[in-house]
Structure formats: structure tokens, C-alpha cells
Amino acid sequence: MKTVLISGASIAGPTLAYWLSEFGFAPTVVERAPAPRDGGYKIDIRGVALDVVERMGLLPKVRALSTDMKAAHFVDAHGKVLATMDAELFGGREDADVEIMRGDLGRLLHEATADRVEYVFGDSITSLTETDDGVLVTFERGPSRVFDLVVGADGLHSNVRGLAFGDEGRFVRDLGHHISIFTVPNHLNLDRTEMCRAVPGGTALMYATARAADARAMFLFASEGPARDRNDVEGQKTTVAERFADLGWEVPRLLDAMADAPDFYYDSLSQIHMDTWSSGRVTLVGDAAYCASPASGQGTSLSLVGAYVLAGELAAAAGDHTAAFVAYERELRPFVTANQDLAEGNLKGMVMKSGLQIRFQMFMLRLLPHLPGSSAMARRITEKIHKAATSVSLKSY
């Protein structure tokens, strides 16, 4: 039985562990965090990714935990509603697609694997050395171990990618924007509703999902000046506060809540582009290999599908990792490219450059429900996303 070490216990890691276990491998998941991560933001599961979830037997549970969002309202500095969108259209979703909180999906995946997969929390890989017997792995806390294969499922700033492939600067494509998300009190008593304040170069949002006692604040903005150090949390908060200081509406209260937010998140909107996702006995999956950025709306789906295909190709190749890694890339790369290509187009509607563009979008949103063929026009908005989300055919391994 081949042993596989997976770094990262978010979405791609547990999904890969599930399928490797199904196919007769012995997966171990190591995660730097002390426990499964909770919270997070809204994520979408679309197209063939729904098939992966269904094959895992989790689709009913995923649908039961849907955010059940109803509407998105665009407001001005005084809180006046300028335009309203149906939540499904706002998220670019079609009928079968599901929106769920990232923490809820992560919990379901952990529960589905906890009794069949070895999890090591509170530790991280420090070195990888290929030997005749496999990969010798050293850890920050635990003893060294040898695994047949190692997989990095550890996100945009992948530790495994850095150890096996070198500096991430070689692979990161910065989209010129930043994002910040954190939990805030639901002082507006929002119920499955999203409120958006858009200004040139930036968008502030607040939303509350089904079953949530609190709300989330999200800030998207075009990058200006040098990037903040990823470890400089206070500097990141200062950047967000300075960029959105004069937006009016509820933004000052959201920025005040940011100071004590337990789950403050800040990063660039970036993608990962690599000529190959594998090196020897080490490979990558999900954001570590082909991050599409939150702007694509497809990061979770890429992780789910990528994990399934990687595990399936390892099974099909009877554990021959060289052949499996080649087949994994051949099967998945067109799907990855199609979904990464969504990001820049989506960003144009998420963060608008001028007041004129914002006013025109508000006008069109108010007009849309009254136009003949409005349903067909709405479908055209989601068509490109749906096409990318279904641009691979899943094998039955």
C-alpha cells in the first residue's frame, strides 16, 4: 500500500485523501493549524465539481448547508439602495450550483475522512529529500518519516511548492488587486442579504448567510504602492482602513470591527501558473498548483476536481507516479486554463475603475428586470462561467 503525505487540510487536501483512501492508498494529512479551520467566506461549487461531491455522497449535506442568499443591494454613501440583483445572478450561479461557507465545506470533508485518514495538526514540513525508498520528510515538531509520494495542497503560498520548486515569485501572476475578509457583528440584521458599496477602484461588502449569527465584511481594491508583508497584519489593516476611510455608508463601523476580528484575512488577488505541477515524487493540487484567485469564483471547484483526477490517475496507473502525474496534467490543464481565464473579466465588474462605469452599471441593473428577454440576458451573464465549470469530463476510475 503506497503512502502519500498531503500538506494542507482545507479543501483539496481532505478531498484528495478521501479518494486516495477509496483507491487503496494510505494518506496522511499534515496541517499547520492546530485543528480543522472554521469560518471563512462564501464559496461556490459548480459544474463537474458537483459531480465530485455527489460521488463522495456529500451533495445532500452540502445543499443543506447552502448560504441561501436572496439578494444583493448596491448602496450609496448614505445607504440609499441604487440597484438590486438576485443573489444567484450576483454570484454567477445557475440552478444546480451551490454556494456554501468555506468552513462548512471543510468540516464536511474532514468528517468524511477522519475515520480513514491520519491527520497531523499543528505541524508543518521543513524539508523534502528524495531517496531510493521514497521521500524523506522532516517536520517542525514531529519525527522525520518516509512517504512514497508527497502532495502540496497548501494554498497560494504553498510551503511544499517552495521546497520542491523554489521561490513562489516565479509562479505568481498578480492581478493588481487585494482582498480582505473578516467577521463582523450583524448590526444591520441582514438576513441572507448582501450590501455593496462601490467606488472607483474599490468595493466594500457586508453579508449574512443562512444560520449565521454574525456577518462578513469584504473589501476588494486595486493595488497601490508596494505590497504589504504577508506577516504584517497590522500594516495590512492600516492599508484597508486608509483605502476605505471615506466611503460613508456602514464602512466606518466595519473598519472599527476589523481591529478585533478573530479571522482577519488579507492577500493579493493572484494566480499560480506553472509549466509542470510535479517534480519527482512530489506534486501539487488546488491553489498550490493552479490558484485561479477568488476573482474567478472557481477556486473551490478546481480543488475538488483536481483532487479527484489526481487520485484517480494514481489509481489507474497502479501507483506509477510518473505516468500518473503526466496523465493528471493532461486531463486537467485545459480545465484549469478555462477557469483561470475567468478572473480578469470578473474583476472588471467586481472593482470598477470610474464613477461613470459605476453609474452605468447601476442603471443597467435597474433596467434589466424590465427589458424583454431579461432571462436570456441573465443567462448570458452566467454562460461563460458555466462553460468553464463544465469544460472537463470526469472519468470513472
TrEMBL record:
Q: Which GO terms describe its molecular function?
A: monooxygenase activity
Q: Which InterPro entries match?
A: FAD-bd, FAD/NAD-bd_sf, FAD_aromatic-hydroxylase
Q: Which PANTHER family match?
A: MONOOXYGENASE, OXIDOREDUCTASE-RELATED
* Keyword Cell membrane attached: no
Entry keyword set: Monooxygenase, Oxidoreductase
Q: Which residues form the FAD-binding domain?
A: 3-340
This protein's source sits in the domain of life called Bacteria
User: What is this protein identified as?
Assistant: FAD-dependent monooxygenase
